[in-house]
Specification:
about 110 residues; 5 helices; about 20% strand
Length: about 110
C-alpha cells in the first residue's frame, strides 16, 4: 500500500523508486505529492504514471502522464480515492492506459 497504518508513506517506496520495476500503489492518492518528489529525486521526472480511480466501475476515471505533470492533471481532473497509482513503462504499454497516455503526450506536443 502507499501508506502505512499510521498514515505515513511506506518506506518501501524509496527502494521501489530506484528500480526499473513497475510499481502499483494502493491508497496513495493523498500522498501523491510525496510520491512525485521521491521519483523526481531519483531523476525520473519523465517516468510514466497513471491514476485509476474507481477502477472497473461505471465511474472509473483514468489520468495518465509523467511524474513531472501528474499532480496538475490529477487536480484538473479531480481524481481522488479510492484509486490505484501505477508507475512505470506498463502505463505506455497497456492498451487502455496506452490510449490515455498517448492522448496526453499528443496534446502536450500540440501545446
Amino acid at each position: 500500500t502507499g501508506t502505512t497504518s499510521n498514515g505515513e508513506l511506506s518506506r518501501d517506496l524509496l527502494l521501489a523508486s530506484q528500480s526499473k520495476a513497475t510499481v502499483v500503489l494502493l491508497m496513495g492518492t493523498r500522498k501523491l505529492e510525496e510520491i512525485v518528489r521521491i521519483y523526481e529525486a531519483q531523476g525520473f521526472s519523465d517516468k510514466a504514471i497513471a491514476i485509476i480511480e474507481r477502477g472497473t466501475t461505471r465511474d472509473e476515471k483514468i489520468v495518465a502522464g509523467t511524474i513531472a505533470d501528474i499532480e496538475e492533471k490529477a487536480q484538473k481532473d479531480q481524481v481522488g480515492a479510492p484509486a490505484i497509482i501505477i508507475i512505470g513503462d506498463v502505463v505506455r504499454e497497456s492498451p487502455k492506459l496506452k490510449a490515455v497516455y498517448e492522448a496526453v503526450v499528443f496534446e502536450n506536443k500540440l501545446n
